[in-house]
Amino acid sequence: MELRAKEEERLNKLRLESEGSPETLTNLRKGYLFMYNLVQFLGFSWIFVNLTVRFCILGKESFYDTFHTVADMMYFCQMLAVVETINAAIGVTTSPVLPSLIQLLGRNFILFIIFGTMEEMQNKAVVFFVFYLWSAIEIFRYSFYMLTCIDMDWKVLTWLRYTLWIPLYPLGCLAEAVSVIQSIPIFNETGRFSFTLPYPVKIKVRFSFFLQIYLIMIFLGLYINFRHLYKQRRRRYGQKKKKIH
């Protein structure tokens, strides 16, 4: 019986080693999330610093070649953001999927469709404001998540993470809306992504029609994300109770 007990204990140890202990899996998850947030933080920091320095040196002239200066890094960061939505979907993080998915699809639509496919949009000043506001939001968000992975709580950074979105998110959505509005005449003129319905209808459907619908969706997405972020802030800092005299 002693031999059998020892053999069972040895087999249990081997099984735990092969499966990995809960503590080991937690550390692996934290390490993976730390590296992901670090890469995103460095990418958006590069964009933010680059745009800031160029604006300080060149002034308003820097607005018009923003896309050609930082677009490659923005493409990289936004493609990598797909991982964030996947993490939420499979349970690696506790973030809800919908707000993450709305932000991912909305930003990538602006970046890849509005800016990426239309050279006429790439030299407009609105690109600077869209990229600058996106990066300003993300450098605080990703640095906060990065420190959370190593159980660090820097109060100043925490306050910035849960407060700066209040002015920056609406401004970012406003800049996105302006870029869509400016692109509508260009899409109408070029006919890009427009199509004609088959016989017997034969009606030409302009892509600008979908852009007008998308304008409504931008502010609907803003409402959903704003509500989500407000709940996060309220959970973090709590509600101030009013004193009854």
From TrEMBL:
Q: Which GO terms describe its cellular component?
A: endoplasmic reticulum membrane
InterPro entries (UniProt xref): Tyr_Pase-like_PTPLA
Q: Which UniProt keywords apply?
A: Endoplasmic reticulum, Fatty acid biosynthesis, Fatty acid metabolism, Lipid biosynthesis, Lipid metabolism, Lyase, Membrane, Transmembrane, Transmembrane helix
Q: Give its localization.
A: Endoplasmic reticulum membrane; Membrane
The reaction(s) catalysed by this protein are:
(3R)-hydroxyhexadecanoyl-CoA = (2E)-hexadecenoyl-CoA + H2O; a very-long-chain (3R)-3-hydroxyacyl-CoA = a very-long-chain (2E)-enoyl-CoA + H2O
Please give one Gene Ontology molecular function term for this protein.
very-long-chain (3R)-3-hydroxyacyl-CoA dehydratase activity
Cite the EC number.
4.2.1.134
Q: Does the keyword Transport apply?
A: no
User: Hey, which pathway is this one from?
Assistant: Lipid metabolism; fatty acid biosynthesis
Q: Name the coiled-coil region(s).
A: none
Biological process GO annotation list? fatty acid elongation; sphingolipid biosynthetic process; very long-chain fatty acid biosynthetic process
Q: Show the stretches that span the lipid bilayer.
A: 33-53, 73-90, 97-118, 124-144, 164-187, 207-226
Q: How does the record classify its membrane topology? A: Multi-pass membrane protein
- The top EC class is lyase
To which protein family does this belong?
A: Belongs to the very long-chain fatty acids dehydratase HACD family.
- Primary role: Catalyzes the third of the four reactions of the long-chain fatty acids elongation cycle. This endoplasmic reticulum-bound enzymatic process, allows the addition of two carbons to the chain of long- and very long-chain fatty acids/VLCFAs per cycle. This enzyme catalyzes the dehydration of the 3-hydroxyacyl-CoA intermediate into trans-2,3-enoyl-CoA, within each cycle of fatty acid elongation. Thereby, it participates to the production of VLCFAs of different chain lengths that are involved in multiple biological processes as precursors of membrane lipids and lipid mediators.
| Name the record gives this protein | Very-long-chain (3R)-3-hydroxyacyl-CoA dehydratase
Can you name the source organism?
A: Pongo abelii (Sumatran orangutan)
The organism's taxonomic lineage, starting at the top: Eukaryota, Metazoa, Chordata, Craniata, Vertebrata
